[in-house]
Specification:
Elements lengths: L1 E8 L5 E8 L8 E6 L9 H11 L3 E6 L16 H18 L5 E5 L1 H9 L8 E5 L16 H7 L1 E6 L2 E6 H7 L14 E6 L9 H9 L4 E5 L10 H15 L7 H8 L8 E4 L6 E5 L2 E5 L14 H24 L5 E10 L13 E10 L4 H11 L3 H7 L11
């Protein structure tokens, strides 16, 4: 898998650390997801990394990040609360959209599940929401501090021990989660919802999953994680969640959006449409019924999710060359078994390119012809390569006309 570190600032200016898990071939990412980890956990917890890898293997890129004051993120955990966690999620979604593509899926584990339920309605791009062992409301976590609540209220702050570690919890945290005691907003989620929960969960009882399910409207689904613990510590449980999310989400994501977009713009044969997929270099390229992405390498400020414009230019020339050779060989019944075309674009000094029309631009086309061909047949095929329509267009100094569309 491809992993890219992604840092971004939250509303307080703290730098948050994220990790984007991409498919083996990044340009094949069908959609992007945002993962919110459990309370006091981090982005590198085993369940989060395993679920992300399982999704990336199925074409869904996943950004997981450390909330403020946790893991590798800056800030003071004691000054955070549930509302700030929701804000962190929104800033993570903005960063994902700015650098790559807006998230279509939100996934939350434990309290992260309650956070994605609160954030989802504020993210227009999100079409599917997934909770894993999540409470219906943030107020549920108050039971973790029940024995320290009096101290927190009296002193304004107290140290509590959670998952074997000590954390400072302030009274403002308790005040904040009291605002999140109702499931009423779940009725207006307007997103497809999938609820995972284990009947053996001793941290968040399965009754919380029932509250989520009852409050939300369709489309909604529930899957029991039989014999799993709260943290999904068994690899098989986390991988099962990842593979199931990928299958379930395909019903709700716009995986056929490229074809729909092309059709909605009524593209004619020979006409293409280029749109922005982010505010950097990632572009969607549409023809009548087909879709590609173009981008720039990371070293030039892109996200490397597609070929560069010059790569695409060479691909067009190479594809046309190969097609032209195959068409000629078939018509003449030549024993051409395979043809490969490798192209290289260079900018060279004028003295090194005497034959170049514009003196500094040179495309080298290396053609491999496989088959029991005579020398004369090979020579003829090389001549035919120059008759490729794209080749002819490039050499004809075509007129390019700009028209401003109001």
């Amino acid at each position: 898998m491809n992993k890219i570190r992604l840092e971004f600032e939250n509303s307080s200016g703290d730098k948050l650390a994220g990790l984007l898990e991409l498919p083996e071939h990044p340009d094949q990412a069908t959609s992007f997801a945002l993962f919110a980890h459990c309370f006091t956990c981090g982005k590198d917890i085993a369940a989060a990394s395993r679920i992300s890898r399982a999704l990336a293997a199925r074409g869904i890129a996943v950004l997981r990040f450390d909330f403020t004051g946790l893991g590798s993120s800056d800030g003071d955990f004691a000054n955070t609360n549930f509302s700030s966690n929701v804000d962190d999620l929104l800033f993570a979604a903005q960063a994902l959209q700015r650098h790559y593509q807006a998230p279509q899926i939100l996934i939350g584990h434990s309290l992260g599940g309650a956070a994605v339920l609160s954030a989802a309605a504020r993210l227009e791009s999100v079409r599917a929401v997934v909770t894993i062992g999540a409470p219906a409301t943030a107020e549920h976590v108050a039971h973790l501090f029940r024995d320290k609540e009096a101290d927190i209220r009296r002193q304004g702050e107290a140290v509590v021990r959670l998952a074997g570690r000590e954390f400072s919890i302030k009274s403002q945290f308790l005040d904040d989660i009291e605002q999140y005691s109702s499931t009423e907003k779940l009725r207006d989620l307007n997103k497809a919802l999938l609820v995972f929960h284990s009947p053996l969960d001793t941290i968040v009882p399965i009754d919380e999953a029932a509250r989520i399910y009852r409050a939300a409207r369709h489309p909604k689904s529930f899957i029991s994680l039989d014999r799993a613990d709260h943290l999904l510590s068994k690899a098989a449980d986390a991988e099962y969640v990842g593979t199931t999310i990928a299958s379930w989400a395909s019903r709700y994501l716009e995986l056929d959006a490229p074809q729909q977009a092309a059709a909605s713009h009524d593209l004619a044969d020979g006409e293409v449409l280029i749109t922005e997929l982010n505010h950097r270099f990632l572009r969607g390229m549409y023809s009548s019924g087909h879709f590609l992405r173009a981008d720039e390498p990371e070293k030039y400020g892109g996200s490397d999710l597609g070929p560069t414009p010059y790569d695409l230019l060479l691909m067009a020339l190479g594809a046309c060359t190969s097609m032209t050779l195959r068409m000629y060989a078939s018509r003449k019944k030549l024993p051409l078994e395979d043809v490969q075309v490798r192209l290289l674009h260079e900018r060279v000094h004028a003295e090194d390119c005497v034959d170049c029309k514009h003196h500094i631009e040179r495309i080298t086309r290396r053609i491999t012809l496989v088959g029991d061909l005579t020398a004369e047949q090979r020579q003829r095929l090389m001549e035919i390569a120059d008759m490729c329509p794209v080749h002819s267009t490039l050499e004809s100094d075509p007129q390019i006309v700009n028209e401003l569309v109001e």
